[in-house]
Structure formats: structure tokens, C-alpha cells
Fold 4-aminobutyrate--2-oxoglutarate transaminase.
Amino acid sequence: MTLSAAAQYGAQHLTRGIGRLSQHVFVEGRGSYLTTDTGKRLLDMTSGIGVVNLGHCHPAVTRAAQEQCGKLTHAQLNIGFNGPQIELLRALQPIMPDPSLDTFFLWNSGSEAVEAAVKVARRSTGRPNIIVAQGSYHGRTAATAAMTRSKTLYGEGVGPLMPGVFSMAFPYYSQMCMPHDTPTDTLVDVALQRVRLLLQQETAPRDTAAILLEPVLGEGGYVPAPPAYLAGLREICDEHGMLLIVDEVQSGFGRTGKMFAIEHAGVRPDMVVFAKGIANGYPLSGIVASKATMDAMPPGSMGGTYAGNAVACAAAQATIQAFRDERVLDNVAARHTELLEGLDALRAMPVGALIEDVRGHGLMMGVQFRAPRPIASALTQACLERGMLLLSTSAFDAVRWIPPLTVSREELAQALGIFKDALEAVAHAEGCL
Ligand SMILES: Cc1ncc(COP(=O)(O)O)c(C=O)c1O
């Protein structure tokens, strides 16, 4: 592909450390589509990695941000509250997965919020260690890279990383090196036994502040945690006075068909980390826990120049309102069924033999392959050539479906058609058919 002049400049002057799916320069976004500087229109099944859940430039969110820009853009939170921040807290509190979660801290990015969660967990329990899941992704900053277990890439060569982090088993067949048809009950039993062993052999409960996990592994393969596993972790945390923290940065704000993925399991978390979808594209993140837990932090120990920015908070409030006004979760349920049906139909075709696993909730769906050679990366490029953005995920051979939650029936049908064509093309090119 020949690069536009702007793309060439970007490739020269932005570090190659970023890495990217495409070399396009995006100049406009509307709903489920992005337009490039060369006028190409792409169907977006990535949502900016789970951020623009209401589609690109949702009119109500854009309006709220524009209006706020003319009123007040920055009122630093260690100096005073800002209006939209308070209004946002009023909108957020009722949608939290448990009424005990009533005290917030707002920040900018997911990684920063994860780091804040670690500090609160350590300070409120007086214990240093954190347990994360194998296959987890919590960010690329120095501390969160230490807690990320999906790929070594994020922490490789930049250590020493933050100490006091231990990894527990996660009941996903590939992650546990077990056959695809291993019953979920077996995966859960073995994983929970290993967590208990971890607490006997590697990090004593009295030294362990929290178990931190994504209720759906994101960069680790789009794998939902089975409810029995989450219930087992809750029990272990209760037994040992440890906090159960869920990182809903990617799975939150309707992505899985409920406002938060943990709701599928009906398990109470002690703390929730959120970001991405909260403001539909404006940088905002946060954590929430009980007042007693959060207020373990002394005044002044939390804050940040742009934390809880007024424009981002106004956008977030409009985002939450749009979820209600436009019955977005109903759309997620309908499109989920169609996506499953489409993928099932594909599995019934000759090329479908390459699909090993289809999994997920709502519009957070993973598809894993069993090709003689890995094909996920070639598949995403074949989709790109056909006008669609789709991301791979994890150290395993998998792709992830993460369309805007507002995606229409027609757009999804078009996406499934492109996926089928691309899969057939890759299968032929790789000699898999
Ligand atoms: C589950 C999870 N946690 C944390 C992060 C880090 O968020 P950010 O990139 O905003 O720092 C991500 C980002 O993809 C994520 O998916």
C-alpha cells in the first residue's frame, strides 16, 4: 500500500514502538465508520479498542463536550470540584454493580486508574502484594506492565518492574494448556486450587492486599471468567481479608451487554476500575470502592493535573444518558445474537473448520483458530484490504469483535460477509483448505 504524505510523516516522526494495525490517517469518524485522509471509508469493528461504544462522534456526546468547552475546560481537582464532575458522580453511582461502591476517584487513563487501585488496596489493607491473572492486561506504564501477563512485550527489556506481583491461574483452556473440550467446571476447579496453592506457597494472605482481574480477559484472548471462578475468588478474598478488584476498563460500559461484566456473575467486587467507554472517546478513567476503603488514602495523596477533566466528565454524563435514551443494551443483545448466528453459519462451511472457539458476552466476542499455522494476523490484514478494521488478541491465534454497541443489523451483516471472504482468502493463501 502506498502511504499518504501525512502517513509517511507520521511513520518517520512517531516512534516505531507504537506499532499499528494500519498505516491509515483517520480524519473523520461517524457511527461505525472511519474515513481516511485519502477518502477511504472503513467499517470499524474495533471501536478504538472499546472506547467509542456509542459509535464515533455520537451527536449527544459531541454536543455536551462542545457546550462544556465554552463554559469551563479545566478546574484542577485538588483546587476544587467542577460541576460536570459532580453531575457525573450522580449519574454513575446508581449504575455501579453494587451499592457498596459509592466513593470514586477520577483520572485520565486506564493504566493510571489501575495504579490508583493498587495504592488504595495496599493502603487500606496494609499489605503489599497483588495477585493478577495469567493472560491479564492492565496497561503499559511501569507499574501496570508489571501486572500485565498477556505478553512479555510490554515489560521486556525495561525492568526491573514493580515487585510484589503474583500470577494466578485463569480458567481458559489455552492459558492452562488443556484441550479445547475441557469442561469449564474442571478448568475452574483446577484454577481455584492453584490460587489456593499460590497463597500457601508464594504470597501469604497476610502479605496479599488484593486479587485484581479482568472479568473478561481482553488482551489475553477475549475470554469471560466463568461465574463459578469469580464466586470462588470472592470466597477466597473473604476468607483472607483481601480485596477483589475488577478491571472493567475494556469490559465496562455496556460492552458485554450489561453495564459491567461482573454483573453476569452476580459477584460483589470490592473495587471497580473503569475507563475507555465511560466518555465515548474523551480521556477519563476512575476507580470506585466503599467509602471506608477509599478514604484510607490521606488528603492530598490522590490527584493529577487533568484528573476528572470537566469536558471529559460532561461527555461521560451524556454517554450514560444516551445509553438510557437509546436503549443501547437492547441493541447489544440483538446484535450479539446475530453475530453468534453469523459465526455459527460460518463454522458450518468448509472454512469454518479452522474455527476452534467462539466465546464472549454482548459485543465482546473472541474467535480462536486451529489452523496449521497462526492466521489471526493475516486475517486482520485481509479484512483491512476489504475495508474493515478488526483486531487480533493475545498470544494465541485469536481475533476480537468489538464493534460500536450502536452497530446496525446491516453493518454487522456486512462485517460478517467481509470476515468470511477474508478468512477464505487467508485459508487459501496459507494452504489451509
Ligand atoms: C483491561 C484493561 N486494563 C487497563 C488498560 C489500560 O488502559 P489505558 O490504555 O487507558 O491506559 C486497558 C487498555 O487496553 C485494558 O484493556
Summary: Residues 409-429 form the longest helix (21 residues).
